[in-house]
Amino acid sequence: MRSQLVGLVLLLAAGPVTAAELVSPKDLQASWFDGKTISTTGPRGGKAEMTFSPDGKITRTGGRAGAARQGTWRLDDDGFCMRLGEAKRDSCYLALKNADGSLRVVRRSGGAFTWTR
Fold this sequence. Notes:
Elements: H1 2-12, E1 21-22, H2 25-31, E2 37-41, E3 47-52, E4 57-62, E5 66-75, E6 80-84, E7 91-97, E8 103-107, E9 112-116
Antiparallel strand pairs: 1-7, 2-3, 2-9, 3-4, 4-5, 5-6, 6-7, 7-8, 8-9
C-alpha cells in the first residue's frame, strides 16, 4: 500500500518532477508536531499558521475564516489526520520532504499545502 500512496502523492503534488521523500508519521511527530508554529500556504495561496501540540491538540489561525480554530490530530500508518472546528470527520494527509526542508502536505482527497518554519 505504501508504494501506491507514494505514486498517488507524486501525481497530486503538482510541480516539477523531483525525487520526493515520504516523511514517516514518527518523524512528523518528532520534527513538526512539537508545539512550534508552522506557516502553511494552501494550494490557492491562502496562508495560515498552525501549532500541533504533542498532546494531540491543534490550533490554526488565519486562513479563510481568519479566526483561531481548535482541533485534534493523530498519526496513522502513512501520515496523519486532523479535525478542526465543527468538522464531522478527520481529514488525512501525507507529507513529502522538499529539498529546502519544507514539507509538501497532501490531503489524500485533494490539493497540496506547503509547510515552512
